[in-house]
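Example 3.2
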Amino acid sequence: MKELIVTKASGESVIFEMDKLRQSLRNSGASEEQIDKVVKQITPKLYHGIPTKKIYKWAFGLLKKGPREVAARYQLKRAIMDFGPSGFPFERFIGELYQKLGYQVQVSKIVHGTCIKHEIDVIARNEKEQLLVECKSHSLAGKMSDVKVPLYIQSRFLDVKSQWELDPDLTGLSLQGWVVTNTRFSPDAVKYAHCIGLNLLSWDYPASKCLKDYIDEFRLYPITCLTGISDAEKKVLLEKNIVLSHELQEDPGLLLRIGVADSRMEKIQEEIAKLIG
């Protein structure tokens, strides 16, 4: 294939790399046969300047014709951006992650700083440390958390930390500030956070253990990635504070209570079982 320019969600123009498409399909669990089939069908449709979103949509549509759990994993990044505008589903999702990491967790907690009160998205504690975690959720793939985010969160953390240091129950614990986003941090945001000791976690940062790695490790697949339930049904579940696929597996009645027909239940539960593994 001749050099092809594609347009990312951020508006940036980059050279299309077929190997990256193949790897993203492979990461979703697609077989080499499936990957070859997708590439073969997509390649003739490509044109200069094509949005990467369109390529993703074509690939997802083709994957849906095969094992549903593969398509579900392929749309994982998009699914986390589909939590909705409130931000709370993402906070609960991150709270679940820290629980898997062995922390006791509180979500959406009001705490006192030296100067003012703060509503903290997630407070996570274990025998060695207590974390203040702020969650920044974006609904657009091209949206980054820029340097203003860690600047703001650091000031909140320092105000709260000054009070935590006076709490005898927290004596000896490492007190840390964290920012977690479902997309990416700008280079300046990373540079600033590293300089002042604020911890960052995003879809692909840090390279050694990013958000996507944790999701796969702990099988924390959101309901929004499931292909067997409609967008309207996902919205109702999120409004009921149901965020993760395993919650539907543990209580199948949740689907019945929102009007999902018995005839669809078996396929949905099969998709969840294969997705979670």
